[in-house]
Amino acid sequence: MAEKSQRNNILLAFFTLLAVIVIVSVIGFFTLGKGPEIIQGQAEATEYRVSSKVPGRILKYFVSEGDPVKAGDTLAILEAPDVMAKLTQAQAAEQAAQAMNEKALRGTRSEQLQAAYEMWQKAKAGLEIAEKSYNRVNRLYEEGVMSAQKRDEAKAQYEAMKATERAANAQYTMAKNGAQKEDKEMAAAQVERAKGAVAEVSSYINETYLIASADGEVSEIFPKVGELVGTGAPIMNIAQLNDMWVSFNVREDLLKDFTVGGEIKADIPALEATGTFKVTYMKDLGTYAAWKATKTTGQYDLKTFEVKAKPVQPIANLRPGMSVIIEK
């Protein structure tokens, strides 16, 4: 009798435990299953990165994280001694090119021009003497007094002096005219080239001053003062708080209340406020982002969509990263 009573007690305890589990499951199904569907997103803002075209060392920051900035504000200064050295080289090359250009425009020195003129006058005088000598010898030859050889020698001397006079005249003309047109154009082009090099290096020096391109707030600064940064390396991020939106990941079966151009209401727990947002963007996140598989029941996978919405009216104190809640 004792064993039978013990067996009955065990069975009673088992069925009692089973009944408790069934009751808890039923209560959980009806209470939890009927709860609201929560869609959680977060506030985001447009950001732009500040970087430099030239490598250098961070010399000084004029802002700190969290500071507001206006377009045109100087944010930081980089030290770039290599660029300064290149500027010195470019300026020296420009001065040399300018000197060559001035020389080409000014032409021959006055002393050289005078020397060329004197040589021409000397040649002219020699030509006159050679011409007179030839004429005298030629008359004597015609009278039968002078031999043909003497006349030929005088004529050769006369022709040689004519060639010498023409050469001296050409030298004087060239000295008077100065550099050729092509030489002047080449010298001018060299000056423009040197000016371009100076302008290029100067633009690199301007890049050592980091300027804010738009209003915003410094959200993050990466290198410390004294650290080296490379070309194009990000130095800080600026958040444009006047261009904010909220982003949600919405399961496909909850999309019926979201349409591009439509409005939705959402709670912002951090501000204990509710805001109205206008949907501006919807895009599926791909098959890898399926939230709920239902193919085993003969239906389909529920995909996830990214939904972006902007506040209809500015929301005071809304910050990037704040949670935004929609209850369905």
TrEMBL record:
Keyword Membrane among UniProt keywords: yes
Transmembrane segments: 12-32
Domain YbhG-like alpha-helical hairpin: 83-205
InterPro entries assigned to the protein according to its UniProt record, in alphabetical order: HH_YbhG-like, Single_hybrid_motif
Signal peptide start-end: none
Keyword Magnesium included in the entry's annotation: no
Gene3D superfamilies, sorted: 2.40.30.170, 2.40.50.100, Helix hairpin bin
UniProt keyword annotations, A-Z: Membrane, Transmembrane, Transmembrane helix
Record protein name field: Efflux RND transporter periplasmic adaptor subunit
Species annotation: Phocaeicola barnesiae
